[in-house]
């Protein structure tokens, strides 16, 4: 098969042969994301834009989209089959996905904390800022983008795959969820955002939602910037921002307040 190339540090793998992420301009120690998908052309997608895209081009992280189709069975490279026991839809086959996972995980650290193997699934544990922070501290991640009715349960059990959900809704596939989770993780890597304070003051960093933000003009449509923000009193500004964070969190996400309560 002819190898397709993409912009930046993305590598698409439309073959059964394992491919190293080194040698394409991404340092060996840079954080890596490997994504098993039926739609490798969906990547990098939004990950190739803005700060994450620049960081990808600069080699601060690497991305490899692994095409599931070449691992398929028979003349038509079938990757799915009908559910055992009957029912609507199709399920990704264990033998097909198993071969893709073995290829994707070659050369990764044995400790899953250093390189998690996850499947994007609406039945998984919710993705959080804390999870993104944990992933950013490792060396990389392998993500499986589900399709149809999901994947054979035996694959999940055999490889010890962690199921992670983007939210309480269902997408047609895991590609959008994978991009969202990778973006949330990559932006926490050193030097990606440029200003470390950006990730320290945003929503969920302290367990609360972020306070309101304002900029010029000082008056817009009759609405003024809160005077305290123009006072130059940094202690008062900090207190105001904390109070606003607490207010917004109580109003919109009381569950976060409950999570911080003494047990």
In total, the number of domains comes to 2
Write down how many β-strands occur, each being a DSSP E stretch of 2 or more residues: 10
CATH architecture of the largest domain: 3-Layer(aba) Sandwich
Average residue pLDDT: 89
Listing every helix as H and every strand as E from the N terminus to the C terminus, the arrangement reads EEHEEEHEHEHEHHEEHH
CATH superfamily of the largest domain: SPOUT methyltransferase, trefoil knot domain
First CA to last CA: what distance? 58 Å
Could you say which overall geometry the principal axes of the C-alpha atoms support? elongated
Cα radius of gyration in angstroms? 22 Å
Q: List unreliable stretches of 5+ residues.
A: 1-8, 17-24
- Strand order, main sheet: write it out: 1-3-2-7-6-8
Strand count, sense and barrel status of the largest sheet are:
6 strands, parallel
Helix content: 25-40%
Summarize the structure.
The chain has helices spanning 50-57, 94-104, 129-136, 153-159, 175-186, 197-200, 234-252, 254-259, and strands spanning 10-13, 31-37, 61-67, 80-81, 91-92, 117-126, 140-145, 162-165, 219-220, 223-224.
Helix-strand blueprint:
Elements: E1 10-13, E2 31-37, H1 50-57, E3 61-67, E4 80-81, E5 91-92, H2 94-104, E6 117-126, H3 129-136, E7 140-145, H4 153-159, E8 162-165, H5 175-186, H6 197-200, E9 219-220, E10 223-224, H7 234-252, H8 254-259
Parallel strand pairs: 1-3, 2-3, 2-7, 6-7, 6-8
Antiparallel strand pairs: 4-5, 9-10
Helix pairs in contact: 2-4, 3-5
Give a verbal description of the structure.
This protein has 263 residues and is of the alpha/beta class. The chain folds into two domains: 10-186, Alpha/beta knot (3-Layer(aba) Sandwich), CATH 3.40.1280; 201-259, Orthogonal Bundle (Trp Operon Repressor, Chain A). 29% of the residues lie in helices and 17% in strands. The chain contains eight helices and ten strands. It has a six-stranded parallel β-sheet with strand order 1-3-2-7-6-8, with helices on both faces. A two-stranded antiparallel sheet has the order 4-5. The longest helix has 19 residues, at 234-252. Residues 1-8 and 17-24 have low confidence and may be disordered.
């Amino acid at each position: 098969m002819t190898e397709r190339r993409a912009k930046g540090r993305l590598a698409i793998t439309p073959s059964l042969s394992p491919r190293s992420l080194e040698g394409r301009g991404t340092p060996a120690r840079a954080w890596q994301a490997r994504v098993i998908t039926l739609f490798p052309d969906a990547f990098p997608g939004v990950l190739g834009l803005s700060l994450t895209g620049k960081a990808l081009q600069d080699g601060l992280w690497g991305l490899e989209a692994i095409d599931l189709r070449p691992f398929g069975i028979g003349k038509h490279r079938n990757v799915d089959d009908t559910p055992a026991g009957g029912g609507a839809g199709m399920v990704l086959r264990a033998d097909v996905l198993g071969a893709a996972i073995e290829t994707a995980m070659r050369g990764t650290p044995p400790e899953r904390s250093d390189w998690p193997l996850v499947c994007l699934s609406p039945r998984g544990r919710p993705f959080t800022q804390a999870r993104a922070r944990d992933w950013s501290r490792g060396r990389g991640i392998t993500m499986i983008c589900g399709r149809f009715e999901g994947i054979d349960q035996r694959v999940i059990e055999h490889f010890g795959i962690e199921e992670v959900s983007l939210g309480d809704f269902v997408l047609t596939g895991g590609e959008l969820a994978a991009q969202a989770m990778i973006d949330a993780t990559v932006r926490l890597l050193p030097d990606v955002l440029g200003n470390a304070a950006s990730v320290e003051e945003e929503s969920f960093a302290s367990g609360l939602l972020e306070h309101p933000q304002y900029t010029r003009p000082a008056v817009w449509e009759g609405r003024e910037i809160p005077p305290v923000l123009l006072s130059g009193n940094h202690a008062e500004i900090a207190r105001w921002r904390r109070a606003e964070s607490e207010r917004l969190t109580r109003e919109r996400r009381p569950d976060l307040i409950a999570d911080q309560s003494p047990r």
